[in-house]
Amino acid sequence: MHLLWICLIGLIVGALAKLIMPGKDPGGIFVTMLLGIAGSFVAGFLGGALGWYQEGQGAGFLMSIAGAVLLLAAYRMFRTKRS
């Protein structure tokens, strides 16, 4: 049940990140879900490194969105350099 909850929140976070940064990005529902989950991991890692989160504490909802937006920006930056 926990995995289902992670996927649902990841989908919501990924969709909000794509809404904040509109543009032509690849993928459908699964890529959006993975974007949200990865954004949460990035936000948790950066927040832990900056001292915002204690060890074992997960990122919050808004920081997860910020992490997903950061991943989208990085993807677009590398995509434009390759093209």
Write a brief structural summary.
The protein has 83 residues and is an all-alpha fold.
Order of helices and strands: HHH
Question: What would you call the shape?
Answer: globular
Average pLDDT across residues?
85
How many DSSP-defined strands?
A: 0
Oligomer: single chain
Beta-strand content:
under 5%
| Cα end-to-end separation | 41 Å
What's the main sheet like? none
Q: Please mark out the parts with pLDDT under 50 across 5 or more consecutive residues, or reply none.
A: none
Question: Roughly what percent helix?
Answer: over 70%
Class by alpha and beta content: mainly alpha
Q: What is the radius of gyration computed over CA atoms, rounded to a whole number of angstroms?
A: 13 Å
Number of distinct helices: 3
| Total individual domains | 1
Walkthrough of the structure:
There is one protein chain. By secondary structure, the protein is an all-alpha fold. The protein has one domain. The chain is 76% helix and 0% strand. Helix 1 packs across helix 3 and helix 2 crosses helix 3.
Question: How is this fold's topology laid out?
Answer:
Layout lengths: L1 H19 L8 H22 L10 H22 L1
Essential attributes:
83 residues; mainly alpha; 76% helix
